[in-house]
Write a structure and sequence with these properties.
- The protein is an alpha+beta fold.
- It has one domain.
- Helices cover 42% and strands 24% of the residues.
- It has three helices and six strands.
- Strands 1, 2, 3, 4, 5 and 6 form a six-stranded mixed β-sheet that branches.
- A hairpin with a 6-residue loop joins strand 1 and strand 2.
- Helix 1 crosses helix 3.
- The chain is elongated and about 50 Å long.
- The two termini are 24 Å apart.
- The model has no long low-confidence stretch (mean pLDDT 92).
Length: 124
């Protein structure tokens, strides 16, 4: 499968499920939408910070992108099972990314104006 085909299938089949999972974890107070400017698409995760109570100065504005070889591997044998385990592990992954990247999902704030979590894999 070519890189372009894998990217297009990821955008159509897998990325929306990641977005839905993230938004659902936060009862849709944090939004996750495809940003189609990349191939495969990045996921834009954002939310308005709490008024008055926030840990960091900037509103939540994160981009997630995955390694293209990892994306292609989702279409190999066992890829769907690997992806299901990845979705189940997302709450822990999100929690683990907070401290090192100075992100606070609870108050929907972050230290930097924009944060890119790139080259991600689908390990759980």
């Amino acid at each position: 499968m070519s890189h372009e085909n894998a990217a297009a299938r990821f955008d159509a089949e897998f990325a929306p499920r990641i977005a839905e999972t993230i938004a659902g974890l936060f009862r849709h107070r944090i939004h996750a939408e495809l940003d189609g400017g990349q191939s495969p698409a990045r996921l834009h995760v954002y939310g308005e910070p709490f008024e008055g109570v926030r840990r960091f100065a900037h509103p939540l504005n994160i981009y997630l992108s995955w390694d293209s070889l990892e994306v292609e591997a989702l279409f190999a044998t066992g890829g769907e099972e690997k992806f299901a385990l990845y979705l189940a592990a997302l709450p822990g992954k999100l929690h683990a990314w907070q401290a090192p990247r100075q992100i606070d999902l609870g108050t929907r704030s972050q230290a930097e104006e924009t944060v890119l979590l790139g080259g991600l894999d689908f390990e759980h």
